[in-house]
Amino acid sequence: MTDPMTVAIATAMAGKAVEVAGEPVRAAVAELVRRVRERFRGSPGGERPEVLEGAVRRLLDEDPAFRAELEAIWQQAHVDASAADDGVVNVFSGRAANVVQLRDAGGDINIG
Q1: How does 42-52 read in b/e, with b if 16+ C-beta sit within 10 Å?
Q2: 3-state secondary structure string, 36-81?
Q3: In 3-state terms, what secondary structure has residue 11?
Q4: Rounded Cα–Cα distance for residues 12 and 94 (Å)
């Protein structure tokens, strides 16, 4: 199963742009990448995001304490995320069949 944190780390490690919401999340991704690179002490064996994603996932599976440390940084960044101008930040954790995000609705709304 692919998780957003692992994908963001692998994509950033590959030198690709990571689409994230706001400066707190960008800073967190940079910190996550720094910590993962330190653990690899060099190249994890590839430059393509999908190869890096597998390497990062294995690293995190092998070290649950390190995973928990990174997840705490990831979660805090999402809590700290804020919208600018007319933007919207939707922070959702957990499982749900349906999630609704709404902004500036006019008139009646029926969900069901």
Answers
A1: eebeeeebeeb
A2: HHHHHCCCCCCCCHHHHHHHHHHHHHHCHHHHHHHHHHHHHHHHHC
A3: helix
A4: 25
The pair of structure tokens assigned to 21 is 């919401």
The residue extents of the domains of the chain are 4-80
Per-residue model confidence as pLDDT tens for the chain (112 residues): 567 777 777 777 776 655 555 666 778 888 888 888 888 876 666 667 777 888 888 889 999 999 999 989 888 876 666 666 677 766 666 677 887 877 778 888 887 7
Token code pair at residue 44: 């994890």
